[in-house]
Specification:
267 residues; alpha+beta; N-terminal domain of MutM-like DNA repair proteins; Helicase, Ruva Protein, domain 3; 2 domains; 22% strand; DNA-binding
Length: 267
DNA sequence: CAGAGCACCTGTGGGC
DNA sequence: TGCCCACAGGTGCTCT
């Protein structure tokens, strides 16, 4: 479900609820939601910072980090207190001093994990460049694509390359950059990379400002929907006219993912 | 190394 | 109405 703009929206709206609170308990109702050992060291620690890294929501504690990935259908819902009755699809809950955060996830793909400081550093180093930070430049993109002999779409979905892009925003950014998703990353010119760099940042910034997009069931604060859904240019618009040339948007499958693009505008 | 296929899960919508 | 299939914003595995 959520890509960078959606995860960023979740983090921003949850931050005032979470930061400064102490983590009293973690309730786990479906054990497979936990990755690795959930040692008790987190108990009683203060949440110093809530931040996003790639598509992960990271609670920085006094010593260690609690990471959450929403995958396709996960949601974090703040509540005043743990519900008395088990709610549908709620598989875990973070109990804080002032309430709780429920982890609801229809498809059960989401995961939580506790990482000690050393483990966190290693884990963090394997994630790719943050596309809205200063280190992500057109030059960096050009140099980094030189050695990637793979198609643009799967290359941009690789979280160890650029962190936070997903199916929606890759399709949208490639359309804005006028690049075909099947192009080899290594074949891009400097000018191509400059357009792609600008397109990625433009699309992510606009989507984040609109609180992301809600196609199926992305919601934040337990019910609000993202405002970017109606801004989509090609994503899930198969057969509809291209916003630039009016020829029908095509849908193909690349890397196992639905891919939407305009064959005449994107070269 | 790149790409295809499948696995993990549940729900929804379309076609017959 | 009911059944079957395709598909869904992600990631990680095996096999070729």
């Amino acid at each position: 479900m959520p890509e960078l703009p959606e995860v960023e929206t979740v983090v921003r709206t949850l931050r005032p609820f979470v930061e400064g609170q102490s983590l009293q308990d973690i309730k786990v109702y479906w054990p497979r939601i936990v990755q690795g050992p959930l040692k008790r060291t987190w108990q009683g620690q203060t949440v110093k910072v809530l931040k996003r890294r790639a598509k992960f929501i990271v609670m920085q504690l006094d010593s260690g980090f609690l990471t959450t990935h929403l995958r396709m259908t996960g949601q974090l819902i703040p509540v005043d207190a743990l519900p008395r009755r088990q709610m549908p699809h709620v598989h875990a809950a973070f109990v804080l001093t002032n309430g709780a955060i429920l982890f609801q996830d229809v498809r059960k793909f989401g995961r939580i994990r506790f990482l000690g400081p050393a483990d966190y550093a290693l884990w963090e180093s394997k994630l790719g460049c943050e596309p809205l930070e200063e280190s992500f430049t057109a030059d960096w993109l050009y140099e980094s694509t030189r050695k990637r002999r793979r198609q643009l779409k799967p290359a941009l979905l690789d979280q160890g390359f650029i962190a936070g892009l997903g199916n929606i925003y890759v399709d949208e950014a490639l359309f804005v950059a006028r690049l075909q998703p099947t192009r080899l990353a290594a074949d891009l010119s400097r000018q191509d990379c400059s357009r792609l760099h600008g397109a990625i940042q433009k699309v992510l910034r606009k989507a984040t400002a609109a609180n992301g997009s809600s196609f199926m069931d992305f919601k934040f604060l337990g019910g609000q929907e993202g405002g970017y859904t109606d801004e989509m240019l090609v994503f899930r618009r198969t057969g509809l006219p291209c916003p630039r040339c009016k020829r029908p948007i095509e849908r193909i499958v690349l890397g196992g993912r639905s891919t939407h693009f305009c064959r005449s505008c994107q070269i």
